[in-house]
Amino acid sequence: MNVKKRINNTRRRVMDWITRGIGANTTQQPASLDGELIRRILVCRPNHRLGNMLMITPLIQDIARYFPEASVDLFVQGGAAVPIFRNYPQVSRIIQLPGRPFSHLLQYAGGWGSMRFKRKYDLVINAYGGSSSGRLSTRFARARHRVFIEDRKTAGIPAEEDDRHMAKYPVEQFRIQMAKAGILSPASPLPFMNLLLDEQEIAAGHEALRAVTGNDRPTICLFTNATGDKLYPASWWSEIYHKLRAAQPGLNIVEVLPVGASSQLTEDLPRYFDRDIRKVAAFFRNCALVVAGDSGIMHLASAAGVPVLGLFKTTSMRVYAPYNPESRAIDTRSLTADEIVATTSDMLQFKNAGRVI
């Protein structure tokens, strides 16, 4: 482990120790709220990972249902939130901490200062109870009311029962806190992740896909990259690719490349790359199916509204599965390549929202 990682791990342990009591006491939650007086809201999720930012989109949608006249500010880390929430009309300001705080200490301090001193809020919400920075920022902000989403451990959820999705759990907890504060839940199901791609973006995604494939046949898109133990070896992906090719000879198979343009596939197939995550999402939206390991790009495809087959071998499928109604997650440790490809065939035959593959 290098020096920076050691410092960062030490910082996390110290921050967890300092902030462990913040938000744990239920008396810190609002006793009562007048929804008509809630006009300015701050949501704290200071994390730089793409997947974690995408997984608060259901919470932002739900906040808009509770308080349709309110504006929402976001306190985040890194640059992912800006494109993710570009089409969210209720999001008025995004306060960004640098992705690497130790390299940009002045910018880091400035972000905290901007959050604290530029505005006063009617309501501040900590979107993730397991974040020490989230708890601290929720307490640090100037606000009339605060909501702390409880950490799963402090909420008393046994590990064997912890099947609440990371995008769903904050919304459930938020609704519980609103009920305690006297505000009725909206008569609507819990929202899914959503980038709110507009028609122009989707049309541009179609053109990008057609430029890669040269035709309008249905397309299976692969994303072969992941981090750490979630990464599958090149030989594994090669077997999946060839079996997909044999099982679906009439369909296009393309690959989306990550930043850095690395691939686990040595085979020659059409590939697409763009640094703009909304363009990548729009590309996904026009595909029939996306097959990807547990990663931020897997969640991006899910938030684009396309069927996603999420491949898992280390992390919890129940907590991190692609979160939209057409998607599935499978534990690849117990499945052969033929069984995985059979799952894609089942999904390609699925009829939903007027689309028939």
List keywords for this structure.
357 residues; Rossmann fold; 2 domains; elongated
Structure, described:
The chain is of the alpha/beta class. It folds into 2 domains: 3-180, Rossmann fold, CATH 3.40.50; 199-348, Glycogen Phosphorylase B (Rossmann fold, 3-Layer(aba) Sandwich). The chain is built from 13 helices and 11 strands. It has helices at residues 3-19, 50-54, 57-66, 81-84, 105-117, 132-140, 169-180, 199-213, 234-247, 277-285, 296-304, 317-320, 337-348; strands at 40-45, 71-77, 91-97, 121-126, 143-148, 219-223, 252-256, 271-272, 289-293, 308-312, 328-331. The strands form 2 sheets. Strands 8-7-6-9-10-11 form a 6-stranded parallel β-sheet, with helices on both faces. A 5-stranded parallel β-sheet has the order 3-2-1-4-5, with helices on one face. α9 links the parallel β6 and β7. α1 crosses α6 (132-140), α8 packs across α10 (277-285) and α9 packs across α13. The longest helix has 17 residues, at 3-19. The chain starts with a helix and ends in a 9-residue tail after the last helix. The relative contact order is 0.12.
